[in-house]
Amino acid sequence: MGLIQLTFAGIGGQGSILAGAILGSAAVTYGGHYATQTQAYSSELRGGFAATWVIFSDEPIVYPRVVQPDILVAQAQDSIDRFAKTLRRDGILLVDSDIVHAVPSITVKQYRIAATSLARNEFSTPIVANIVMLGALTKVAPVAERSCVERAIADAVPRNKVDLNIKAFAAGFDAVQAC
């Protein structure tokens, strides 16, 4: 694995921070790797800025701050506007194409997934769009094994929502498209 730095960003209420925490837990608890996770969000409960930064490694992590992410997951236009310039050249950019319409011209591997509409249409709730994005990320980036992420999802969501979230994760895994 080496050292992989990730930014997962959106707006409050989209679950970006939860998705980052799940991914970090998957890598540590079930994957046997090291991970650190930090987060920031604005004071609004819904609609303000929200992001998480996760570092994954095979060795202990001595500096927990993401400086130049290898991967950027953008769930909102504000996220791409804030963080696209920090993404490592030849990194991975994954966007929710329902919400992110203007992607700057940068030299990265780009992937799009209509996570919000998939969540609404397939699962009748946009609340699982973050888990759809997590499924897509798991397919395109070598951060954690699919089975590890599924187990971490089951640990993180309410028991009566596990099946819904695992199905949303699988839908994202299957639906991601390279640009």
Superfamily (CATH H level) name: Pyruvate-ferredoxin oxidoreductase, PFOR, domain III
- How many helical stretches? 6
- Proportion in β-strands: 15-25%
Task: Supply the helix-strand structural class.
Answer: alpha/beta
From the spread of the alpha carbons, the general shape counts as: globular
Largest sheet: 7 strands, mixed
Please count the beta strands (DSSP E, at least 2 residues each).
7
Q: CA-to-CA gap between the ends?
A: 24 Å
Number of domain units? 1
CATH topology: Pyruvate-ferredoxin Oxidoreductase, domain 3
Uncertain residue segments: none
- Give the topology string: H per helix, E per strand: EHEEEHEEHHHHE
CATH architecture name = 3-Layer(aba) Sandwich
Determine and state the CATH class.
Alpha Beta
Radius of gyration: 15 Å
* pLDDT averaged residue by residue: 92
Helix content: 25-40%
What would your notes on this structure say?
The protein is α/β, with parallel strands linked by helices. It starts with a strand and ends with a strand. The chain has a single domain (3-178), classed as Pyruvate-ferredoxin oxidoreductase, PFOR, domain III (Pyruvate-ferredoxin Oxidoreductase, domain 3). The mean pLDDT is 92. It has six helices and seven strands, in the order E-H-E-E-E-H-E-E-H-H-H-H-E. Strands 2-3-1-4-5-6-7 form a seven-stranded mixed β-sheet, sandwiched between helices. Helix 1 packs across helix 4 (129-140) and helix 3 packs across helix 4 (129-140). The longest helix is centred in the first third of the chain and has 15 residues, at 16-30.
